[in-house]
Amino acid sequence: MVLKKAKTNLGKRALMKKAPKLVETEGKMCVMLHGGKSSQVLKNLITDLSVLKKGECHKMTRKNDGIRPFEGGGETSLEFFAQKADAGAFVLGTHQKKRPDCLTVGRFFDYHLFDMVELLVRNYKPMDSFGSVGNGAVLGSKPCMVFLGDRFETEPALRMAKNVLMDIFRGKPATRINLKGVDRVIICTALEEAVMFRQCVIRYKKSGTRLPKVELEEMGPSFDFVVGRHQEPPPDVKKQAYAKAKIGKKVKNVEHDSLEGKVGRIYVEKQTGLEELAMMKMKGLKRERRQA
After folding, report:
1. Brix domain location, by residue (predicted)?
2. Domain that includes residue 69, residue range
3. How far apart are CA 223 and CA 199, in angstroms?
4. Is the terminal CB of the chain with fewer CB neighbours within 10 Å at N or C?
């Protein structure tokens, strides 16, 4: 592996931006592209998804032959695009006879393919078909995400799809949330035959109390999908990717409890000089001594 060295200050800042960090403060960049064969449904859907990831995606319009991530060596071009765009996730649209309107979503680790899952798209409705409903929402903002159904916890493929979709659309990490800033919600409902993907705009109306009345109105894009093939990450790579960085020095005998907060343990030496201390004697003892 050849290490790049910056020759200018601009190049140095670019390399520092791509370098790994202990705490990620930016959203995950996503590469959106098409395979060798695509359909108009996938083109419109990827366009809508790029609007949802506005500012955090790199959308490619040309067809890319040879990208077959589930085949050996078919992920080379995909990893090359990820390194060029400094991306941690991807959305790939392919259309085949066996798998029509197939949307493959996945993630990278160290610019190498980590995990992925296929979503076979059905009943797609673009955002344009809902009119001006979405004008009240700021596209590209951080959405609220809801996953309904126990299949997201019991089936490995749907569990991975939930994890990947949350990682793609969660946006930048936030420490504080303003209620007025939560203007849209993404709802995924797992039914027996398919999973429904819906996006709604949130309307806050007067309720006569301190908390407003919340109403949802669908704004698109709307589609159903069935999970196809999926690929789990290798156990050793998964352990390395899920490792949490240790920030700061570890303080001895100090723990953090969810109820009591910061809890510490103090060690005190054994006190042996209590018998030698000059203590005040009682008057009764003095009287007994005089009588003796």
Report:
1. 28-236
2. 27-226
3. 10
4. N
Residue 2 has pLDDT above 90, yes or no: no
Percent of the residues in the chain that have a pLDDT greater than 90, as a whole number: 40
pTM, two decimals, is 0.76
Q: In 3-state terms, what secondary structure has residue 252?
A: coil
Alpha-carbon distance of 267 to 261, in angstroms, equals: 20
The pLDDT tens digits of the residues spanning 187-241 come to 999 999 999 999 999 888 888 888 888 899 999 899 999 999 999 998 888 888 8
Determine the Cα–Cα distance for residues 111 and 75; give it in Å rounded to an integer. Answer: 11
**Could you tell me the sign of the dihedral formed by the alpha carbons of 67, 73, 76, 79, in that order?**
positive
145 in Cβ contact with 89 (< 8 Å): no
Q: CATH number for the domain including 116? A: 3.40.50.10480
Check: CB of residue 57 under 8 Å from CB of residue 67: no
Counting DSSP H helices and E strands in the chain, the numbers are 7, 12
User: What's phi and psi for 224, nearest 5 deg?
Assistant: -110, 155
Output the CA–CA distances (angstroms, integers) from residue 42 to 77, 112, 184, 193, 199, in the order listed. Answer: 20, 25, 23, 21, 17
